[in-house]
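Tutorial sheet, problem 5. The two components below are modelled jointly, 527 residues in total.
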Amino acid sequence: MSFTLGILSIQGDVAENLISTKAAISELGFDGKVIDVKTPDEISQLDGLIIPGGESTTIGELSLVNGSLKVLKEKIDNGMPVLGICAGMIMLAKTANDKVVGKTDQPLLDILDIKLERNSFGRQRQSFETDISLDSINIPKFNGVFIRAPSVSDVGSDVEVLSKFNGKIVAVKKGNVIGTSFHPELTEDISLHKYFVNLVNSFKN
Amino acid sequence: MLPLSGERLDAKGIVSEKENSIDVLRGSSTLKRGFAHMLKNGVIMDVTTVEQAQIAEEAGAVSVMVLDKLPSEVRKAGGVARTASIRIIEDIMDSVTIPVMAKCRIGHVHEALVLKETDVDMIDESEVLTPADELRHIWKWDFTTPFVNGARSLAEALRRIEEGAAMIRTKGEPGTGNVAEAITHIKKVNDGLRTIKGIYDSGDNQELVRIAREFKVSYDIVEQTAKLGRLPVVNFAAGGIATPADAAYLMSLGCDGIFVGSGIFNADDAKERARAIVLATTFWNESDKVKEAQKMIDERQSMVGLDINTLELRMQDRGGSA
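Model answer (structure tokens):
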């Protein structure tokens, strides 16, 4: 059956995710489409969702205002696959702390039991690219693009660690929910998007 | 996937180093342009104090720009406008979680170096401050920190991108509360893009060469931009935006996001206005939501606007011919 995958387009780098996801769907030869979504109505039609990179405080506040946050939470709790990238991973967390400012009082989805630190690697000048590996999902080498990235310092018992960099957790998975500190949509390599599209296809069928 | 047209791989600002024996790369075009992409569909607000920065963050701004004075106050004060106090920039960096930007004077390499050392997330080489060099902008490829520059036309935008800008904004006319110039500038950039795309599609390379010479940029950047059909970096609207409807209109013209300078903290309803402009930027294509946002503000509290034709100082002309 054909599936619809959405990119949450409240704020952030939506277009890059559309391109990477389109490429992934076409390479896998699936019968599926990808669209940008903003309203609760649009979100309720989805079989999978990517929350893109951006500013988590902005995405959280505005998805709360238009009622999207509630629908998102229901859909994800009911098993819809979701990939949260950078700000998107922050959105999926239970609570968030900023490295400098401390605990933040921002709207979150409370899906992943993880201890999350925002701006964990420093400010923009310290942003970096490096090779990482996600062996457990068969991606041995991936160009990790970390932009003012968050990291995870501890995970609950039901959360799997997919990747680490310098002792810090940078990718996690719990069932159909994936969170990454880095930006797979900013590289040519679409293997992580392909992995996620596969999850969405299996969920739908 | 990110457009990297015009990137320089040999730039001094790109640093390869080891972190606990693991290779890391900093300052690449992917990281600098990628940072700007994370701000898309967002509002960046000019602030002068910690309190204003916190109001901006709570309102949903994606970033704040720290200045010593708001552009409208710079206009009134006259004299030389320089980069903001480092102590205030640092205080703001310690009190908000969103990225913090600051302005340096056009061509002032060492103000930019000071801002780099301060660790601001992006440097705005800005015509709001008094230019330090009328003929040369900063060679931004030397920096690991990304830069944003103003532009009034496609030619100016491409000149700045060739110097290493990771983001472009319209110049508009800062500190006026008058959105007319920002509208003119984005339309001029869009017209330019349509023109070169048409020429590229028709296969007339000789005409693209002529345009590159007229623009004072390389043939390569013109060809790659023409092929792309858009700027290879994000393009925000700036200069004179004062209301939610202003923001929504500029988003509808294809801007990737909005800078608001004096429009918020010069108004008497700053808190509501900050929130309203964010809402109108996010939901610009839902006119009922833009109306709700516009209803949150009171026109009688808006900053008093200035007519462009009677201005003594046109900030947009600064550094424009270089």
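Marking note: The radius of gyration of chain B is 19 Å. Full credit if you identified this.
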